[in-house]
Amino acid sequence: MARLHLLKCLGWVGALLVFAIGAPTGSDGTAQTPTNEAHLLRINTSLARWLELANRDTHFLVIDHEVDELRLYHHTALLRTCKADLTTVAAVTDSLTVSSHLRRLRSASPYVSPSVGPFDWERYLSDAATRHSALLLSDETLIHAVADEHSVWGAVAGATISSVDLRALFDALTDGTPVVRLPKGWASGDVTP
Amino acid sequence: MNTHNIGRRGTPLRSFCVLVGLWVVTSYSVTDASSSPEEALKQEHLRLLGELSASRRAASPYLVVDTRGNVVQLRDRDHRLMRTAVAATGAARRFEGDKKKWKWSWRFATPTGRFRILRKVSDPLWVKPDWHFLEVGEEVPVFAEDPRRFQRGILGSYALYFAKDLMIHGTLYEINLGQSITHGCVRVGAEDLQFFYENVDVGWPVYIY
């Protein structure tokens, strides 16, 4: 009786081993990884959003990880191209907007009230950006000027562009402006994430 | 008992065969199912790229005005840069007349957004607005037909209107190009103005940011 049980168990184990070894493969013979599909899906989502925004009469920003560029578009027209360092920018998010305009780095001390007073010149009197300004996106990605010895954003991760480009984008983009982030490989179809 | 034993002995082999059969069937179906979404995604990717490539081409060449950098660019349908001109754009300052006498106020900023070239004019005539008389401290003519309102030569040789009262025109003081000093119009140098007049058609879009 015990032998029968043993044989039965061996049968199941053998079958499961065969099942496990013969894991399904893709049409090209490579192992199927869900990350490839997820990456391709993300690329397609970004491209679809770009297409949708290209039909709208509004500014939008494209963050292109393929060529390390930020591009400002209106409709289909290319308004500005900014070379950027995107190495520290985190994972791709599907739906992005410009969240806020930061005039300068503020202390996050718990003893300091984050609200600004009525005489805060940066908020009420200043109209244009300085090289210490930054743009915050809805996924907390920061766009700031190239770090130098005077930059307050030097240690902060984010997309870095030249101060001239930052000033132009800071004024051109309003809060809520849509942002499309294109992952690497979006143009070539290389789905290796 | 014998029959029962035979049946019992056949169980491991039978379960093995059943599972292998199941694996074969599942493997085929899983392979099809797993390749289909990826293939579908690749097809969708190609379709989107094609659609994007078709829609990325602009309907016509267009002008881009950078009010921060004070630059005007002419780009072709494939977004290639054809001409860059140093410009002067709106000062974004507010101006108010005497509040007792004049209740007007103006903000001298170049508007942002999408416009189009409405008309092109050679040797344009400047129709002086009320704010000009207030700025220079002269009496504002009551009638629009007053000859004091009209002056030629001050806008350069050409003007390309992109709004009712706003245009790309020339200047007598090219030294001020590159600065935000105008009342809302876009000023460019004489050579660039001639190039734009000769190469830009009515109806082409003007994007200002």
Strand content range of chain B:
25-35%
Which structural category fits the helices and strands of chain A?
A: alpha+beta
Distance between the termini of chain B: 92 Å
- Tally of contiguous helical segments of chain A: 4
3D shape of chain A: elongated
Along the chain, the helix and strand elements of chain B come as: HEEEEEEEEHEEEEEHE
The radius of gyration over CA of chain A amounts to: 25 Å
Which range best describes the helical content of chain A: under 10%, 10-25%, 25-40%, 40-55%, 55-70% or over 70%?
A: 25-40%
Structural class of chain B: alpha+beta
Q: Whole-number average pLDDT of chain B?
A: 84
What's the average pLDDT of chain A?
Answer: 75
Taken as a percent bin, the fraction of beta residues of chain A is: 15-25%
The H/E string of chain A reads HHEEEEHEEEHE
Tell me the major beta sheet of chain A.
8 strands, mixed
User: Could you name the ranges of chain A where pLDDT drops below 50 across 5 or more consecutive residues?
Assistant: 22-32
* Total count of helical runs of at least 4 residues of chain B: 3
- Number of DSSP-assigned strands of chain A: 8
Could you please describe the fold and organization of this structure?
The complex is a heterodimer of chains A (about 190) and B (about 210). With about 190 residues, chain A is an alpha+beta fold. In chain A, about 30% of the residues lie in helices and about 20% in strands. By secondary structure, chain B is an alpha+beta fold. In chain B, strands 1, 2, 3, 6, 7, 10, 11, 12, 13 and 14 form a ten-stranded mixed β-sheet that branches. In chain B, strands 4-5 form a two-stranded antiparallel ribbon. Chain B is elongated, with a radius of gyration of 35 Å. Mean pLDDT of chain B is about 85; it is low at about 1-5. At the A-B interface, helix 1, helix 2, strand 3 and helix 4 of A face helix 1 and strand 1 of B.
